[in-house]
């Protein structure tokens, strides 16, 4: 019973660190594109690198620590599979203002993506180079 609990917990941790790694790599790509476009700075890229490195190091340490037979156990696989179930369950929760967590998270991520890439209402992404600026005249969508 204890062995199954350890395997399940290890699966939860590795699944969570895997999600953290994927999220960090996604924002590393977005931040690098924003840095190349000069719409965001180095702190975004550096924080993405650090979060990805922490997640990768933690996952590697857990996999190194675990016995090889443990990764094939049903409890470990259930722990890995519990991460998506927990995320879906959390998405249906409500925030203090009554909105659901999932749509609010997607909306916030989309807004941050547009802010880092310099996209305004589906615009060009080069608003800082336009005259007049995009604050005076919003970007026009690409044809």
Backbone structural class:
mainly alpha
Regions with pLDDT < 50 over 5+ consecutive residues? none
What is the count of β-strands? 0
Order of helices and strands: HHHH
Explain what this protein looks like in three dimensions.
The chain has 143 residues and is mostly helical. The chain has a domain at 2-95. The protein is 66% helix and 0% strand. The protein has helices at 2-37, 42-65, 74-91, 101-117. The model has no long low-confidence stretch (mean pLDDT 84).
Could you list some keywords that capture this structure?
single chain, 143 residues, mainly alpha, 4 helices, 0% strand, flat
Task: Please specify the SSE layout and strand pairing.
Elements: H1 2-37, H2 42-65, H3 74-91, H4 101-117
Short description:
This protein has 143 residues and is mainly alpha-helical. The chain has helices spanning 2-37, 42-65, 74-91, 101-117.
